[in-house]
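User: quick one, fold this
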Amino acid sequence: MNQNITPNIDDDAAGNVFDSDLINQINSLMQRDTFRVKSVTRLLQHITLKAQKEDNFIVEYRNWFNFFIENYSPYFINNVSLIKSLARLMCELYSNPSDLSSFLFRVMNINESCCAIGIGLFRDYLDDHFSLDHFGLIITIIFGSLLNPNLRSLCLSTICQHLTNSHFLFETLSSVNDLEFPFCFHFLCLVDPPLDIINGLKICQQMVDASIHKFPSEQTYINFFQRLMNAMNYLAHQEILSNQILIQVSEIALLFKRIELFYMMEPNDDLFNWLSSVFLLSQRFVNQNSILENSIFIENLIKFWFLPPNFLKIQKIQYFIDIKQEFCNLCFSLLMKKTGKQKEIICQLIEDPTSRYFEYIGQHFSKNSEFRKILRTINSRPNNFGNCALISIFASILEARQFIFNLCPFQKYDFIMLHKIVEFYINRPLQPPVTIEQLQYGDALSNVLIAFTKIYLKSGKISVNESLLFDLTNLYIRNLVNLQANDSDFARLDRHIQALDIPKHILNAISNRPEYVPVVSSLNFSFLSNTCYSTQVKHLFDHLFSVQNNILSSALLSSYVDEESDNGLIIVRSAFDNCNDINMLINFVVPIISKMIQSQKKLNQIAKTINKMSNMVFYRTMCADEIHYVHLILDISNQLLNQFVLAEPDEENIIARELFHIMTNLLTVQRINFGVLAIYGDFVFHSFLENFFLILHQKNFTFFCRDSKFVKSLISFFDAFIHSGLEHSTIFNNFEVIPNAIFSFQKFDEAALIKISEILIDILLKGVEMPTFLPNILKFYFVEERNVSSFNKLTYLVIQKYFDLFMEIINSCSDSFSDETNELLEYISGEISSGAELLPTFEVDFVECMNMLKPYISLVLFSENITQGNSLDDPDFL
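Assistant:
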């Protein structure tokens, strides 16, 4: 081997010389006894980058690359990173597919190691390029190398990944009759290493799904399936099979059921031999020793034996019926056999979100009534943990019933099975689950109640008699008791709460039973102490308070709400959403909130709760008691305001916007200027407003206006305040800070821009001064370019109010105006200074003038960048 190969180079007249330094380095490195792969890879990357820039030396680079592949290919065969680096360089040097094909063809015909490198380079090329045009000779070499034991694995993986749609693959089937065992096809040899068998089966799987027209002839198509069936028969009898081979065999078997050739096949020995081999695999692997490692394979078998499409012509043949029944026995033996693995298996099947074991069995039994015979065992073997699995399967059966048009034939059996489950539970202590077995039983129970409610109760297709109500009551109460478990599983907790969602008339019937209130009042839900479960807490108590039982509501509040409880205020807000006894709620909640305010705990949650109280109280008629409630709400709002000064930064925005919501509720519904609240004096409200705005200014109003939710609440308040007809001497002091901050930090959709423009117009017309607002609104006008009538009017009024300041800005850049601009500006200025209104016809001229002034005024206004913030495009803004 030459020590240092550098291709011949012809220097051009300009002295443009091919730099071979990197090539000499990598050649020298490869001649050492050992070399670092990273060093070679790095040099190849540098050469690739250099070749990109020096396309005038493409011939020199190609000559060296040919030499490099020919001389050093044995070093690259098993090194993926080097192959990828070489492939990237190859694609750079041979960007034309025709040139690349010629290069690969020459390389693959040099020797065996070069052929291997050529196949590897071609495979990497196909990772990024999908067209096989120009590569027919290369593909022919790959298929021709399948019988070379040294190249077979590489060829199979390349065909499996990239060539399953090639016509060359289907053409190899024409010569399969010349192959002898163990070869089924050129690409599937039954004594290959497991990885090669897997690739061969994957290729077969792609071909099974192909159209018959892709095969050379109809007879070739039939022969393909015959040989594949024989291969599956052989594999079924092998002692040791990898999990991946099992999965491939089962997926091919599932595909067979979709093929018309099998779907319509008449009974014959070949078909039954193949079914026997699939059942043999079922017997060997559907057991407690295999399921944890072969769960996908076993689920595929369940789909194969139980679910459509089916082999149409053999459905009523006794052999096929018997074999399906035997498989059913295997599935239930796996669940019911008491061994050390039973609990682990059932827990995994229930908890694994990817497991479809129960779902598939449920789909099968949803179309017949045979499962009732299996469920009869539930009370005869009460200590068998497999009963938990049977209950879960029944839940899956009910879930699958939704796809059945006529439920009448199954309704009786479903009610009987539901009663069997209640009988199973009735003698068990009514205690929260502790062990994993008890948790799984509870989960299965909640799934049954969810499915039964969906299929029968919410559909309104049945009437609930006393017997069924008894069963539903027991399941419902048991589900509530199970919610007491100290369980960290969010999904299981959600299912327990979802199971409580039964129709209102049935819930009323259950809650009217004498045992309901004592049982529910005595429950102790441990998950309430964890703030991570706030959503679950709300859903649970929304349900419990919806019962509208004052004794129960009072008991729940007393049990779970105090100044220390983590989720207590969530429960309180749920009570205000669902309870009607306002007297009980106000008298219970106000003292607790007062204590919490004094302790400076959860101020943002307190603000949300006071707002929720205002939503309930302010929308009621103003009798004497309820006027007292309004006064209480304003009183605790004042207490919260006193603590607002000390609030944490992450609480401030929430507290501020909730206080604005409270005031807006009061202004919108109880127009205090009409004297309705004169009993306790308007000064309470005005004093509150004055203190609130004073604190906001002290804390920096600009900071709050960065939050779009705060801005929405602020705008809603001003809208309500102005339309209520109220006057206030101080809240509009230094008001310009607010619109300046809003227009500096927020973006608006059209609806929000209209809303805020109309409010600011009303405020301007009240005589509120805000001279520094003019530059900010002009900036916003020129950046956003919004032709919205109300915003145009707002801009016009601000310019009109501060016309002298506007003319100062104009005069600072008027030297650059065109004659047309000056003429239009003179007309617009005259109208503005005369106090003219912005009528529709004049608005067109005003907008045109502003657009003409934009490039000049922008130079003055944008000497400093303006900052844009988040968006006010929430559809709920209005």
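User: anything notable?
Assistant: The first strand starts at residue 183 and ends at 185.
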